[in-house]
Amino acid sequence: MVKNVGPKDKKIRLFLAFLFFVLSFLIPGLKVLFLILALVLVITSILGFCGLYAIFGINTSKKS
């Protein structure tokens, strides 16, 4: 599993995860959806790997 999520991308994902987490409490009907989205964003940030990026050949991490 090659890392394909860069540092700026990770920060954006963590911010969006926090936003979805907060929205899950403000919009109860979509709570599960928002929590799943937040969880996926946090996991991809921590791992540095995004499956969709791999499929589409996107890489925002620094080349070594």
Order of helices and strands: HHH
The major pleated sheet works out as: none
Q: pLDDT under 50 segments (min length 5)?
A: none
Mean pLDDT: 95
Count of individual beta strands: 0
β-sheet strand percentage: under 5%
What share of the residues lie within helices?
A: 55-70%
Q: Helix- and strand-based class?
A: mainly alpha
What is the overall number of helices?
3
- Intertermini distance: 15 Å
Radius of gyration based on Cα positions: 13 Å
- Tally the structural domains: 1
Global outline:
elongated
Describe it:
With about 60 residues, the chain is an all-alpha fold. It has one domain. Helix content is about 65%, strand content about 0%. The chain contains 3 helices and no strands. It is elongated and about 40 Å long. The model has no long low-confidence stretch (mean pLDDT about 95).
Topology of this structure?
Elements: H1 7-26, H2 31-47, H3 51-56
Brief account:
This protein has 64 residues and is mainly α. It contains three helices and no strands.
